[in-house]
């Protein structure tokens, strides 16, 4: 298969039924905390039990619900604590050396042999969800989505469990998830399980996309089991039993466009609303977390000096707060932020020599001593203002969100351009006898039915510009504008030709969320009223529209043209 040309050299198949046999030997060494070392049998077992280095920043920074796995609407929370559901006799099918090394987990354990059988078996227990590493905090992420152009309300991680965020020796942060580890509050009527067919497809394609140079989530391991689940493979009412399988996957974050839709009010067409409807504070909190963690450059795009945040620590100390200034007092966790800046000198620093104030009678500690302020002034000007206030910009949160939005738009436009250049469709499956296939594709796939069908909706789009949620995807083997790879897409909304416009449409939905978080009128983004062109909310919506109009298509065209020129060796050719 053409796909395997793009798979990493160290991608190892373990299960005897998988027909993937690389010739490379498995390394007997691993870089751990930057030092080459060999593991003995006992140290391997200890390394497995110790697990990766978890630092779960998202759970400290964002609101978390603690009420467990039962299916329900989850208000006022970005995550909910859950427990994986165990499987019987888990065994490793496939593993990626590269992905495991990002987590600094021992790759020696990929292969089971007599010398490390106990450590291998323990390793698989953790990667199936049967055991939980110390430092892991299993949770499910709450998000919403527009599907086929209509808002459907709460969706969330119905078959995925966040284990935590692994920080490796290079200070890279990787969110680690188990997909297929059992039901969560977002599973609705499904069982929270995935089968081997769909799990194998996601594993292979996510690693292939990485080696094609396209931003994507990664797959580390694939575990199958003797736990059986029911599936109607061809949607004919014929139920068969298939093995429950669990994929461990990783990305800097799995936050997506739909994560910002949880505070969306009731939709006038579908009647659905987000679980945290009309609560803009939660989206503000989420936006600030994403910007400070994944888009630190957004602050600098404002062109103003700003302090920075390094860490955020929360606690079990509770404080009273009137969140909406309505007299309704609630308890919130006391939290501590470490911050940094070139200097924290402030206006008040210059007031230390102020003489007695005629109204308050107060004075500075160095009253009537101008020399100390002259010294301070000379230091500040020479060190921090060599151009002497040549550029001053007001502290504008609207501009902050606009810069964040512009970068997300650029990343999304770049991503879809890279998709188009390799003929990738995110989300037709047609019947052909006893199997189904993607027309005009070099892949032959078996049915994907896991009880849910994902496509290119806001809930499937990464806020970091990554390819994620591999459902009914496909690659074109020959070019067709109207190529579709989702059987439920009868109108061709998510065809190859439509992918750029759909991604731009999804960006518009994200803009509405950010406008609302800023206290603006999101309705003016799509249907601006010229009579309100001079009011503040109208201007805010116009600024977001301008960012989308000026950023998405130019970025898409630039990246797509560059990629296509490379295909025909015209990389340096200049044309319109």
UniProtKB/TrEMBL annotation:
Protein name (record): Selenoprotein O
Keywords: ATP-binding, Magnesium, Metal-binding, Nucleotide-binding, Nucleotidyltransferase, Transferase
Gene Ontology terms for molecular function: ATP binding; metal ion binding; nucleotidyltransferase activity
Required co-factors: Mg(2+)
Organism of origin: Fasciola gigantica
Family to which this protein belongs: Belongs to the SELO family.
């Amino acid at each position: 298969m053409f796909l395997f040309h793009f798979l990493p050299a160290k991608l190892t198949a373990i299960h005897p039924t998988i027909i993937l046999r690389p010739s490379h030997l498995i390394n007997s060494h691993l870089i751990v905390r930057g030092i080459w070392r060999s593991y003995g049998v006992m140290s391997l077992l200890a390394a497995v039990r110790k697990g990766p280095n978890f630092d779960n920043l998202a759970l400290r920074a964002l609101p978390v619900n603690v009420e467990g796995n039962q299916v329900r609407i989850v208000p006022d929370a970005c995550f909910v604590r859950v427990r994986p559901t165990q499987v019987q006799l888990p065994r490793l099918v496939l593993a990626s050396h590269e992905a495991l090394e990002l987590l600094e987990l021992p790759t020696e354990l990929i292969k089971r042999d007599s010398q490390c059988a106990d450590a291998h078996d323990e390793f698989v227990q953790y990667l199936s969800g049967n055991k939980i590493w110390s430092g892991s905090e299993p949770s499910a992420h709450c998000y919403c989505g527009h599907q086929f152009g209509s808002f459907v309300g709460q969706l969330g991680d119905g078959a995925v469990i966040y284990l935590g965020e692994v920080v490796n020796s290079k200070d890279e942060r990787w969110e680690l998830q188990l997909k297929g580890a059992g039901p969560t509050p977002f599973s609705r009527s499904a069982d929270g399980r995935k089968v081997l067919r769909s799990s194998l497809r996601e594993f292979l394609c996510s690693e292939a996309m990485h080696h094609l140079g396209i931003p994507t989530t990664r797959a580390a391991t694939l575990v199958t089991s003797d736990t059986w689940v029911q599936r109607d493979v061809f949607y004919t009412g014929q139920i068969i039993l298939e093995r429950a399988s669990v994929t461990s996957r990783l990305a800097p974050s799995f936050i997506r466009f739909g994560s910002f839709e949880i505070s969306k009010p009731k939709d006038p067409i579908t009647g659905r609303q987000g679980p945290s409807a009309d609560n803009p504070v939660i989206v503000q909190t989420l936006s600030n977390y994403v910007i400070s963690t994944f888009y630190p450059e957004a602050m600098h795009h404002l062109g103003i000096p700003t302090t920075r945040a390094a860490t955020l620590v929360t606690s079990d100390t509770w404080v009273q707060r009137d969140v909406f200034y309505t007299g309704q007092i609630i308890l919130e966790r006391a939290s501590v932020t470490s911050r940094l800046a070139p200097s924290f000198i402030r206006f008040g620093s210059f007031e230390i020599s102020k003489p007695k104030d005629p109204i308050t009678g107060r004075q500075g500690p160095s009253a009537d001593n101008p020399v100390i302020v002259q010294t301070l002034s000379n230091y500040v000007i020479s060190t921090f203002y060599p151009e002497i206030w040549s550029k001053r910009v007001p502290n504008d949160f609207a501009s902050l969100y606009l810069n964040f939005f512009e970068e997300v738009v650029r990343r999304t436009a770049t991503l879809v351009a890279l998709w188009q250049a390799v003929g990738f469709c995110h989300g037709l499956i047609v019947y052909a006898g006893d199997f189904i296939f993607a027309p005009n594709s070099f892949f032959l796939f078996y049915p994907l039915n896991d009880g849910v069908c994902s496509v290119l909706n806001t809930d499937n789009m990464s806020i970091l510009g990554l390819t994620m949620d591999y459902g009914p995807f496909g690659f074109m083997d020959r070019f067709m504008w109207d190529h579709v790879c989702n059987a439920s897409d009868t109108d061709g909304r998510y065809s190859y030709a439509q992918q750029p416009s759909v991604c731009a449409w999804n960006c518009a939905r994200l803009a509405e969320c950010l406008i609302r978080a800023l206290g603006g009128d999101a309705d003016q983004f799509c249907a601006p009223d010229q009579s309100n062109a001079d009011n503040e909310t109208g201007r805010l919506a116009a600024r977001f529209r301008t960012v989308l109009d000026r950023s998405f298509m130019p970025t898409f065209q630039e990246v797509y043209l560059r990629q296509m020129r490379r295909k025909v060796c015209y990389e340096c050719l200049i044309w319109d």
